[in-house]
Amino acid sequence: MMSTAATLFIQIITFFLFSATVSSSSTPSGGGFSIDLYQRRSSSRISNTQIRSSPYADTVFEKSVYLMKLQIGTPPIEIEAILDTGSQITWTNCFPCNDCIKPLFDPSKSSTYKNKICDGGSPCPFEINYEDRTYSRGTYATETIRIKSTSGKPYVMPGTTIGCSHNSSADFKKPYKPSGVVGLNWGSLSLVSQMGEDMLGLMSYCFSPKGTSKLNFGSNAIVSGDGTVVANMYRKKEAPDYYFLNLDAVSVGKTRIQTLGTPFHASKGNIIIDSGTTVTYLPESYCKKVRIAVEKVVKAERVASSEKDLCYKTNNMDLFPVITMHFQGGADLVMDKYNTFMTSGGEITCLIIISGTSTPIFGNRAQNNFLVGYDPSSQLVSFKPTNCSALWS
Ligand SMILES: *[C@@H]1O[C@H](CO)[C@@H](O)[C@H](O)[C@H]1NC(C)=O
Ligand SMILES: *[C@@H]1O[C@H](CO)[C@@H](O)[C@H](O)[C@H]1NC(C)=O
């Protein structure tokens, strides 16, 4: 999709504004089998590429999303923006910004900031609307972005296309909120795509609700070793910028619920993996089967709510079943209770595999405590059960 037109980008990030409380402490156990990643990767491609150091960014958890720290402009200003593998454009609030409490970035004070000029001579406008109804409006520019690197020197990306927003929704305006979004999908303008061919689009992250973590790019983002499983990744013509996986089945305890025979069934991608969405969304017809299976085993008082929510008046995670997600390619992800149930208000626990959104989404909460590696050139996503809060502490 070309950036220089006033196109309406319908993209997906969803804030899930439950006040999440951590209620489970066990780590997921490794499911499925492990394979050596190098056997499936076209290894010649990586060894031919002289990647001397790997870029990385520090990340922090903020309620329901993960924020990536990056520096923008000259002199560099540090911002924190939502790490979003479900969208393309990287943007930040810019001065002047309507109602911004903290518009961190003032383009007039950066020597490397350049507006992108469209036909007619004015700056190219951008407009992004996310699935959760948040939005951003502004103009496109090129600017220098810096993140960290294993070499110890910053990884510098001059001339990176970004959006400079002058009107974004309230969620992006408060001091403790993200000041923008870092787009990391398959599109040519995503930050990882703009890093160039050397990186092969490789990136990895490990999410936990505690402390800081890292987002790795390039050779350091290869996920392998004991317990690693892989899922096939698909690029679909109708939505070419999303990273699609193919969900074959969900098991609730020992009850396996196949997608085969349901409208959800597919062989080349039926769900996107998205770091910018909190919960997991499935189509209602299939999600209902999962809910029914959960209902059958949970012996606790239901909380009357809408028909599509499955909530109980308890915070005892032992009452809930282990859910396994079976992705095509061999990734049978045995979920921790924390990945699939959320306690809010101290004593109400809900299943957070829910129905809704036009595109099914494998959200960030379900990915917690897996080291997740994206490898678009081999079309694989790797998952390695990991205590993410221990990984970089
Ligand atoms: C900001 O954008 C929203 C959504 O398009 C619009 O309703 C609002 O009027 C805009 N505000 C300003 C000050 O331009
Ligand atoms: C994960 O690592 C953290 C930090 O080292 C530690 O406090 C915690 O107990 C670990 N969790 C498990 C389940 O091992």
TrEMBL record:
InterPro entries: Aspartic_peptidase_AS (IPR001969), Pepsin-like_plant (IPR034161), PEPTIDASE_A1 (IPR033121), Peptidase_aspartic_dom_sf (IPR021109), Plant_Aspart_Prot_A1 (IPR051708). Residues 1-24 form the signal peptide. Pfam families: Asp (PF00026). CDD domains: pepsin_A_like_plant. Its main location: secreted. PANTHER family: OS07G0603500 PROTEIN-RELATED, PEPTIDASE A1 DOMAIN-CONTAINING PROTEIN. This is Peptidase A1 domain-containing protein. It comes from Eruca vesicaria subsp. sativa (Garden rocket). The lineage of its organism: Eukaryota, Viridiplantae, Streptophyta, Embryophyta, Tracheophyta.
